[in-house]
Structure prediction request, 339 residues.
Amino acid sequence: MITKINQLLQEVEAFTASDAGQVEAFRIKYLSKKGLIGELMNDFRAVPADQKKVVGMQLNELKTKAQEKIAALKEQFAAADTGGRELDLTRSAYPIRLGTRHPLSIVKNEIIDLFARLGFCIAEGPEVEDDWHVFSSLNFAQDHPARDMQDTFFIESHPDIILRTHTSSVQTRTMENTQPPIRVICPGRVYRNEAISYRAHCFFHQVEGLYVDQNVSFTDLKQVLLLFAREMFGEETKIRLRPSYFPFTEPSAEMDISCHLCGGKGCPFCKHTGWVEILGCGMVDPSVLDNCGIDSKVYSGYAFGMGVERITNLKYQVTDLRLFSENDTRFLREFEYAY
Ligand code: DAH
Prediction:
């Protein structure tokens, strides 16, 4: 019996494994109930009483060695296992939640893309402007209410420097620097000294359009605006031009579209009129062309300007303007799939 125990002891000590499966096979072979050590335990009963002590100690040593070996090998393979998993380069990555585009950017980009297809380029200008580009060049009389401190943000020490109140200032800058044909779309932020509420804010966004060439007519303006309205709000959209007044266009008009929520039948959104206003437009006043160094006897042009917030409200029924600048991700995430 002692010989058998010593033989197994040597086997146990010499045992190595290359994976966890071999360790388990080893455990079954030696330590399971019917395993080799188990058999020896059964045989132990027949050992004469005077040898029991010595044989018993040997047998116990064998059993402990075998258990220790298995525990050590198991640990080794378990550690190797985790290590492997940490470095598994084939594993797909955790989903990373990406940011979403701001609704105003979505709509602005849509407007730009649409006019780009019609040959309009983007023109930009500074938000901190001077009186000439925002007002004087555009025929605003000295006593025009828009020049009032109540409507416009002035820099106290430099009364000539203001935050632009509309993107029409980019019209002037473009015409000063380029001779016709000019076809530009000017997106940008504008500022007005308004109390902040659900329907007004001290800054918002506009997109201005300007087309100057020979023989540009009101028909061209109407055509391009009809196309814009249909692309933006759907094929069946109708437009309506109402006479209006802007210092820099003559004639001037305001454009309504048929209410896209009720199809023109009348609903609370369009205040039961069937129409909603979306932009201002007109033929560039000849004196504005001359102010900017473009000969009004040779060239004519049209211009239009729209509020991006307004278009976004119409498209997505956002009823509180403040949401656009509060950075509440619950609001912003609603536009995750809008583009
Ligand atoms: N600048 C005007 C505003 O802020 C909008 C506007 C009206 C722009 C008519 C134009 C235009 O170019 O032709 O209310």
Q: What stands out?
A: The chain has a mean pLDDT of 91. Strands lie at 121-122, 128-130, 154-155, 158-163, 182-191, 203-213, 239-246, 249-258, 275-284, 300-307. DSSP finds eleven helices and ten strands in the chain. Residues 166, 168, 208, 246, 249, 280-282, 303-305 surround 3,4-dihydroxyphenylalanine (CB under 6 Å).
